[in-house]
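Box S1 | Example of a co-folding query
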Amino acid sequence: MNSKDLILKHDNDDLPVAVRNTIADEAARVSKLFDNSDLRHVLIIGGAGYIGGALSSGLLERGMQVRVLDLLAYDHGAAISGFLMDQNYSFIRGDMGNKADLEDALDGITDVVILAGLVGDPITKKFPDEAHAINDLALKACIDNLNGRGLNKVIFVSTCSNYGLIEDNVLADENFELSPLSLYAKSKVQAEQYLLSLKGNTDFHPTILRFATAFGLAPRMRFDLTVNEFTREVATGNELVVYDAHTWRPYCHVRDFTRLIGRVLDFPVELVSFEVFNAGGDENNHTKQSIVDLILSRIPEAQVSYKANSSDPRNYRVDIEKVRRILHFVPAYSIADGIDEIVWAQRVGLLDEVEARINFYGNYALPGFAKTDSTQTPVLEVVS
Ligand SMILES: NC(=O)c1ccc[n+]([C@@H]2O[C@H](COP(=O)([O-])OP(=O)(O)OC[C@H]3O[C@@H](n4cnc5c(N)ncnc54)[C@H](O)[C@@H]3O)[C@@H](O)[C@H]2O)c1
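Box S1 (continued) | Returned holo structure for nicotinamide-adenine-dinucleotide
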């Protein structure tokens, strides 16, 4: 593989003609909303993180303007440096819960994607007060402040972790009972419920995407995620310790999430407004063992040991029929693709600094959080 394999191609051309026509009608509707401008100007809140970097790149590739509002909780500003020279990209350091920061960021924006938060069970368990401040209070303030501004679509990224622990032979669809186990997932469920409760009282159209666990290369890598972590451990020659190898999880490549968000932005509003979608793919429901087997098929000399009873009991598979039927979304990337990318990145030396800059590469501590009160610190604003 080489780096050209990492470029996301615009893929609406593969859709049936009738669907492409509805997308054209939707583009015309949105254009009317914004003074006959065809330009979409998307604010990605939390866009400096793992998924946000891949999304920024994918939306720019589609000819959209991108602005990122992010408080750089992990001191990971270097993740956006590659975008700053792009005239269609701008960055504001700030807090989604701070009205002034958000207002600044919303200037000229047509659509919003909310990715911001303390993400993952371990970081929210380690920093429960900060998690509450961000994932509950700041998020709610942000949602409230988005209303009444003439925005078009607002995509809230949630998680399949909301389903908790499910029997092995059951697939959770969007109506399956939510049983969040962690502080992280509990906040997501609360935020989903709040957003859905606003029906009839917002001037924007929200869509909730329950993401599977992400994998694949992006400007800010996270090696606290299973596929990425397992692959790097093995590719660096370390012994891989696998807990509860039989547990199922849905996975999805970061570039597929970008494709999906593109679909929500493109597709007719009546198909996505106040809708919830599981975001993944049947072929990417995997056990940890099947991920290890794929890694071993590439690196057979790997040292792997197995243990039972980790502190993370989550086990779930999700039904992705709705996203396939309504948004024609099927993942284009497999777990094997993600493994190959990370093995490649390790081999060509792109990941040499992981041990030295651990917070850049995973959600372990919050070195940037204390610096983020924008009333006390200068706000870095780079606007094209
Ligand atoms: N990565 C996954 O596997 C996965 C799976 C399911 C859902 N999700 C969801 O996708 C979204 C993005 O996840 P990610 O993996 O990119 O996480 P990430 O931790 O890499 O990114 C989150 C970003 O939010 C920023 N942020 C935190 N608080 C903020 C605030 N108050 N204002 C502005 N910015 C703030 C952080 O600085 C960071 O850049 C999250 O909402 C997460 O719950 C991710």
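Residues 128-146 form the longest helix (19 residues). The pocket of nicotinamide-adenine-dinucleotide is lined by residues 45-46, 48-52, 69-73, 95-97, 115-117, 119, 134, 138, 157, 159, 211, 213-214, 220, 222, 225, 363 (CB under 6 Å).
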